[in-house]
Amino acid sequence: MNIVAITACPSGVAHTYMAAESLEQAAIARGWTIKVETQGALGAENEISADDVARADAVILTTDIELNGTARFEGKKVIQSTVKRLVVNPSEALDAVEA
């Protein structure tokens, strides 16, 4: 599986990056490829390109705040979660990708 994701929290600091790390570790443990864009206090980092989207089997988005640039995922399987759920149990979002 090839996944792209965006993580973001209201303050755009610690939890944004914790969620990204949790997702990355869980995806790698499954042998999946993942690219996570963070939308935090520093703006968008590790931005997902059009090529990344084209190769993606699914997209994981957080829903704690309004995300920028989600229209680029039109036509893709999109899984939505909260930052807290991604930090605590990233496998839940990855399981939803397979469902």
From TrEMBL:
The reactions it catalyses are: D-fructose(out) + N(pros)-phospho-L-histidyl-[protein] = D-fructose 1-phosphate(in) + L-histidyl-[protein]
EC number(s) on file: 2.7.1.202
Return the Gene3D superfamilies for the record.
3.40.50.2300
Query: Pfam families recorded for this chain?
Result: PTS_IIB (PF02302)
The superkingdom of the source organism is: Bacteria
Against PROSITE patterns, the record matches this protein to: PTS_EIIB_TYPE_2 (PS51099)
Q: What class of enzyme is it?
A: transferase
Is the keyword Glycoprotein in the record? no
Tell me which UniProt keywords the record has, alphabetically: Kinase, Phosphoprotein, Phosphotransferase system, Sugar transport, Transferase, Transport
Which InterPro entries does its entry note?
Answer: Bacterial_PTS_Sugar_Transport, PTS_EIIB-like_sf, PTS_EIIB_2, PTS_EIIB_2/3, PTS_IIB_fruc
Start and end of every PTS EIIB type-2 domain? Answer: 1-99
Q: What is this protein called?
A: protein-N(pi)-phosphohistidine--D-fructose phosphotransferase
Q: What is the lineage of its organism?
A: Bacteria, Pseudomonadati, Pseudomonadota, Gammaproteobacteria, Vibrionales
